[in-house]
Each structure stands twice: as structure tokens, then as C-alpha cells.
UniProtKB/TrEMBL annotation:
Domain of life: Eukaryota
Species of the source: Anaeramoeba ignava
Protein name (Swiss-Prot/TrEMBL): Rni-like superfamily protein
Transmembrane regions: none
Pfam families: LRR_6
Amino acid sequence: MGSKFSINKIKNKKAQNLFIKFRKQFPEEEFISTDEKKKHYGVIEIIYRECQRKKKDLNKFLLKLDNSRLGIKGLEALCTSLYEDDCVTQLSLRKSEINQQGARIISELLKKNQTITDIDLSSNPVGTAGVRFLVDAIISIESEKQNLKALYLNNIELKEEGAIIVSYLLENNQKLEILEIGANDITSRGLGYIADALKGNTRLVSLNLESNPKLTSEDVEEVTKIVTRNAIINEVIEGLLNNACQRQFKTRMIVFDKSIRGLAMLEGKKNQMNQARGTPLYQVFQQSITKSKQDVPKVEKIENFSMRFVSCWYR
């Protein structure tokens, strides 16, 4: 079996290392049946072909294994190989027959990997129990250093209880920026939990809810408004940080004024713009960034401010 998979045919060194780690998970023991060997051979070939596709000079890359059907053994081998990997930033396993048990295996990967930013598990029978494994892993103490930014869970048999679990993720995670949960069976009640969780979440800027037949346009509009608010806030924070680095203090105040104007228009609270300018919270922020041209506000201060501002906004 080994001669078929020449490591020299994989041009990317990091992809080579990944394949070597994966291949070691399948020792050619004599007691394995012929059928089992064929199955293992097929799984190894899937990973081998994907590693071959990686260009020589890539340091970070997508591992696209859609329709792969790795099976439990193959998925375990893949996740084990990725525990301390530093090259795969995106992992796509669409239509790969990943069920609750498979989600549990991936959840262990999420606790240990610090490089993966995007995971796509769409069109798999993950179900509510599988989502619980994933969410518990993402918000666990063990995964504090994980950097997951995008999670795609379209068409995974997600129902009301699953939506409530997703709301718990949004309530306890301030790293995720993109979440797709379209083509599921989410109810208005389930989405209500998500909407409540988003009021305290300033990070998520994209939420796909398409093709959930039990949701009304009013339900979706309310949540979309909150996510749009987050997009405004994140744009403002980025502008503040960029200007902070350049010490353009007047520009920072203009950017912040625009953020209040944008939020006021979004919420239909035109009068609240002037009210916000008069709040102690705004005055403290204004003083902090105009106090000294030598002081540059830290990232944490600006992010904390945005969260405090949002919490006041929804009182």
C-alpha cells in the first residue's frame, strides 16, 4: 500500500507532514481483513489527493474533503493529525455523513487546534446532540486559544432545541464572526433565544437563516438588524484602532460620532444620538482619547467600551 502514496509527489512540505501524520494512523496489521484494508486504502487516498493539490509555497490552506465519507476511523485519524497542525486554516467536510459521533470527534479537535478559523459541516446529519458537542467544545476552557471565526451548519437537522444551544454559543463566545444555520427547522421561539443572545454579542457580523420554513420574515428581520449593528460596531472599532495607531485623534471622534449616528438610524431612534452624546459613558470615552496625544487606547479598552455601549443601548 505504501508505494502507491509517494511522499515526494506532495510538493508542499506542510502538506507532506500532515499526510505522514495521517498515514501513521493506519498501520498495516495482518489481522485486518482484506475488505478493511480496501476501506482504509480509500480513506488514505482521499487525504493524499487533497494534500497533492496544495501549491508548493503555501503556508496556510483549505483542506476540502466534501463528499469524502471518511468514516469514524478516517475522521479520528484526520482530527488527530490536526491537533497540533499549523497550516490548515479552513476545513470543509460537507456531505460527508458526519453524525453525532463524528461531531464529538470534531469537538475534540476544536479544543486542541489553534489554527483552524473556518469549519463547514453543512449537509451532514449532525443533529441537536452533535451541535451540543461542538458548542461545548468551542466555549470550553480547554479551547480558550482556539480561533474559530466561521461555522457553517446549514442543513444539519437543527431544530428548536438546537437553536437554543446555538444561542448559548453566541452568548458565551466573542470570536465567531460568521454563522450559517440555513436550511434547517428552526422555530420562531428558537430564533428568539438567538436574538436575545446577540444583544450581548458584538462580534458576529454575518448570520445566514435562509430556508428555515418555520421562520417568518419579521423574525429574520429582527435578528438581521442586530447583526447589522454588530457590523457597524466592528467597522468603527477597526477604524478607531487604525486611527489610534496613527494618532489621529480628531478622526477617531468623527468615526465614533458616525457609529452613534449609524446605530441611531438602525434602531429608528434619531433623538437618541444627541442623548448618547450627553451620557457619562460617551464623555468618559471622549476624555480618554483626547486627554493626551501621547496616549493610545488599548484594544481591550475600545472593545470593552463598545460592549458597554451596546448593553446601555438595549436597556
